[in-house]
UniProtKB/TrEMBL annotation:
Name assigned to this protein: TRAP dicarboxylate transporter, DctP subunit
Organism: Pseudomonas fulva (strain 12-X)
A GO cellular component entry from the record: outer membrane-bounded periplasmic space
Ranges that cross the membrane: none
Keyword Signal attached: yes
Length: 336
């Protein structure tokens, strides 16, 4: 066989092989860390996000979900994301206050009257301003998902008025607004990562905690808590985060695919969370928890105390941002 013909065959073989190599090189695999158990609405939404991203990218972008704080709690995840050692994380928005103080506005008690108001604010311009502030911290915010309205549990007594909280050691998320609120009500706020809460309740290191119904059920707090009060005192969102280092390594088409998958999963995840928060209440009652709702009068007394706390903490969040946030919330209410 002559040499020119041999070189031609070799070149043809390489040309046929290169597209396959190029396609393979474009495939990426990522880790997504979540603090809650796999059957909780957050990790379930993360699985939907992974499916949408895989489908939308033709199998090129693949995400594996690690639930139950397998890769670390929320604070640890925030340390790993900027370096790109974890590419995605689903964290509670209160955890972000330590990085961007304006996220504290989400923790203001009794500010939302409905999930419709929540969605309008978080998906609107004010919510997007919050997400944009994360880029300077090495993070990309891909949207707000739902944890839900939080309710109180404890092992001591029913909470029928805010004075009933006096002296109780209540676990809160690691946000200064939460601590200020519960300390103001006479409780002893105990900030703690969620993966440590069950053991602390079981050992009576703390008396109670506060979370949406879905997480009270999936975290099995009913096994170590007797009383559940439907206080709905603070709404909490998840934030789907991505390492900016990883984001910058993607091309424009891949970023569009990521945004689209996150948006698709957002609505589905919120639906899962709202269904779970509704349905799991019956399970908690059946398990033996004593459940009480606040009367209208006592709820208003909680609201009145919340106003005092909002005034106290607004300056530490950013008084100008809090004012703009509340103005937009009132505008939305007036438009409906």
């Amino acid at each position: 066989m002559n040499k020119p013909f041999t070189r031609t065959l070799a070149a043809l073989g390489l040309a046929l092989l290169l597209p396959g190599l190029a396609a393979h090189a474009e495939e990426r695999s990522f880790k997504l860390s979540a603090g809650d158990p796999i059957d909780a609405p957050g990790p379930q939404g993360a699985k939907l996000f992974a499916e949408h991203l895989k489908d939308g990218s033709g199998g090129a972008l693949n995400v594996k979900v690690f639930p139950s704080a397998m890769l670390g709690n929320d604070v640890q995840m925030l340390g790993a994301l900027p370096a790109g050692t974890i590419e995605f994380a689903l964290v509670g928005a209160p955890t972000l206050v330590g990085l961007v103080k304006e996220f504290g506005v989400l923790d203001l008690p009794y500010q939302f009257n409905s999930t419709a108001e929540v969605d309008a604010m978080l998906d609107g311009p004010m919510g997007q301003q919050l997400l944009a502030k994360l880029e300077a911290k090495g993070l990309v915010g891909l949207g707000f998902w739902e944890i839900g309205f939080r309710n109180l549990t404890n092992s001591k007594r029913p909470i029928e008025k805010w004075e009933d909280l006096k002296g109780l050691k209540i676990r809160t998320v690691q946000s200064p607004v939460f601590r200020t609120f519960f300390d103001h009500l006479g409780a002893n706020a105990q900030p703690m990562p969620i993966n440590e809460v069950f053991s602390a309740l079981e050992m009576h290191a703390i008396d109670g905690q506060e979370n949406p119904i879905s997480l009270i059920a999936t975290q099995r707090y009913n096994e170590v808590q007797k009383y559940l009060t439907l206080s709905e005192h603070i709404y909490t969102a998840y934030v789907l985060l991505m390492s900016k280092k990883t984001w910058d390594s993607l091309d424009d088409a891949q970023r569009v695919q990521l945004r689209k998958a996150a948006e698709q999963a957002r609505g589905e995840q919120r639906e899962l969370a709202r269904k779970a928060n509704s349905e799991k209440l019956a399970e908690l009652k059946d398990s033996g928890m004593q459940v009480n709702a606040l009367s209208d009068e006592q709820r208003q007394r909680f609201v009145d105390q919340a106003k005092v706390v909002t005034e106290q903490v607004s300056g530490s969040i950013d008084a100008e941002f809090v004012s703009a946030w509340q103005t937009e919330l009132q505008r939305l209410r007036g438009a409906n």
